[in-house]
Design brief:
665 residues, 23 strands, seven-stranded mixed sheet, 35% helix, alpha+beta, 19% strand, 23 helices
Amino acid sequence: MIAESPRVRMSVLGIVVFALFASLFARLYYLQVMASDDYQVQAQANRIRVVPVEAPRGRILDRNGKVLVDNRISVQITIDRTVLDELGDDERTEVLTAVADGLARSGLPKTVEQLEADLGNQRYSPYVPVPVAGNVPEDLKIWIDERGAELPGVAAERVAVRRYPYNQLAAHVLGYTGQIIDEEFEAKADSPKEYTLNDKIGKYGVEQIYEDDLRGFPGSRSIEVDADNDPIRVISEREAVPGDDIVLNLDIDVQAQAEQALQSGLAIAKERRCSGCPVPPVGEVGSTVVLDPNTGGVIAMASFPTFNPADFVDGISDSEWDFLQDPVNNAPLNNWAIQGQYAPGSTFKPFTALAALEAGLITPDSTILDEGEYKVPDCSGDSCSFSNDQGKAYGVVDLRRSLTVSSDVFYYGLGARFWIEQTRLGGPEVNGDLLKRLGFDRDSGVDLSSEQSGRIPSPAWLRSFCEEFPCDEDVWRTGRSVNMAIGQGEVLLTPLQIASGYATIGNGGTVWKPHVVKEVRDGRTTELVRTIEPESVGTIEMNPEWRAALTEGLTGVTTQEGGTAVGAFSGFDHLSYPIAAKTGTAQVQGKAPTAVFGAFGPAHDAQFAISVLLEESGYGGSVAAPVARRLFDVLANPGLLPPAPEDGRFEALDSLAPVTGDVRD
C-alpha cells in the first residue's frame, strides 16, 4: 500500500490538472463562441464614443418677419456639484477661489460666497453642472481648459443660447428658457426629441407653450478613440434637425409703442394730481392689449413692470428669481394683461346694455330721467340709494347718451330690473348667463401660460362662493345687481377680456379666441408647416340697430360734448377714423381708483380693439384714455409708426394727450 502511494498521488494530480484544463477550455469556448457577440459589442463601446449634437432651437418672428428671438454661441462656465462635494473643505475653497479670481481678471467679478449661492440654486437638477458665469471671454476658457487637474468639476464650454435682439420688448409674450428640471424631464420622457438633463426648455410664454415646435431633433456623432481616449476618426453622424420657427400675430413696432405709452401713462399718473382720489395715485402696475377684432390675433400685449428674458440665458440666482416674483416689487414676471383680475368699472356698461337689449328690457331709444340718483324700488335705508359720481344729473338720456356721458343711473336701473323682473325674464341667472356668452366667466384660451379667469357673479355663484369662503350673507339682493351693472361689486375681468369684449362689439357679435401665434414654419426651409386658424368660441345676437346705437354712443365718448374721453382725443381725425370707446374708473376701498379704457376703431369697420388698465392711477378719462390715444395715433396712420428701437429701449414720454383736470369716470 505504501509503495503505491506515489502512483495514487500522481493519478489524483492528473485528474486535477485535467479538470483545470477542461474548465479553461470550456471558458475559452464560452468566450470565443457563445458570448462572442456580446463582447464584440463591449469592445466596440470601449473604442467608440457617441457625442450628442444639440439641435438649434427655432426662431420667433413678428408678423412682418422681424426676428424677436434667435440663437447665438456663448462661452459658459459650469461647476459639477457632485465632483465638488467629494472634495475636502480646503480643496473646495481653493477651487472656488481660483474660479473667482479668473472671473475677476476677466471683468466678471464674483465672490466665493456668490459661487456657493449659485451651486445651491434648487432650480437646477442635482445631476447636472450648474452655470456660474456666461458670455465669458475666450482667454478665460483657455485658462480653465489648461487647468483641468487643478479645477476638478469646473468646465468652460461653448453653448447655444437664446438671443433677444429687442431685450425686454414683449417679454411677457415671448417668455424665456431655462435648465430642464427633473419633473419636466420626466414629462418629456416619451418625446421623440430626446431630452437630457443638460437641456434647456421653454419655461414661460411662447417659449413654453410652443416648446414642441421650437425644439429640434438632436443629432449625434460616433467617434472612434484610441487607448488614450484620443479621437481617431468619425465613424458615423446623425445630423441635428433645427426646431421650427414661430411667427406671431404681434407687431413689434406696435408693441414698442404700447410699452412706451403704458410706462409713460403710469409715470404721468404718479405725478398727476387727482382731486377725486382718496389717496395719491401709485402708478406702478398696468397693461394694455391690442387685438384684431376680426380674427382674435394679439397685435400687442404690454405689461408693467417687466423683465428682460436675456437675463435668464445663463441662469439667474435665487435672489434674482425671488425679486421677479415678489409682490413688493409688483411681481415683474406676472403678465398683468392675463393674470390681473380687476373690476372693469364703466367699461362694463356696453356689455350690460347689450344684455339688456337681448333680454328685452330696453330698446335703443328707451329713455330715463337721470337726476343724479337712483333709488331701488320698494327698498328703505341708506343701501337703497345709488348716485352718479359727485351726484351729477344728466337729464333725459337714452342708450346712446348714457354711454357718452357715462350715466350710472341709467345702468343702476337696468341692474335692478334684471333682479326685480327675473320671473318675467327667465329666472335669477338670466343676466349672468347673457354676460357669460361673452366669455367673461372663464379664461379666454389665449396661447400663453398662467391666464386667469374672469368672474361674472350671480346668485348661484354667491352660494358656491360662500360655501368655500366666509361671507356676511349668501343671499343675492338687488344692490348686487345694481353694482354689477356698472362693473363694480364682485365682477372681475382681465385686460385681455376687456379688449375681447370691445372686439366683439366692433365686429358685430363674434367672440374670437385670442391667439398670439399666427403660423409655424420649417426652421430650415421656412416653408409653412401649419397655420393657427382663427377660432370662434361664441356668437352674440346683435342686430344692426343695436350695434348702431352702441357704436354711436361709444363714438360720442371721444367726440361729443360731455364725452368722457373728448379731452384725450382732442385734435384726432375723427372724420376718417372714428373711435368707439368707453372710459372706466373702478373704485377700490382705501386706494386710488383703477383707470380703465376700452375701445375699437375705426368705429364703422373695426380693425383694432384696445384695452388699457392702470392700477391705482386715477380716472379712466384722465390717465388711461391718453395711453389709448397714443396708440390710435399710429394705428390710424401706419406711415407714422416708427420702427421699434433696435435695442428695445426707449424713454418715457412727458405727455400723451392734451387732458386738463380730472375727467371723473
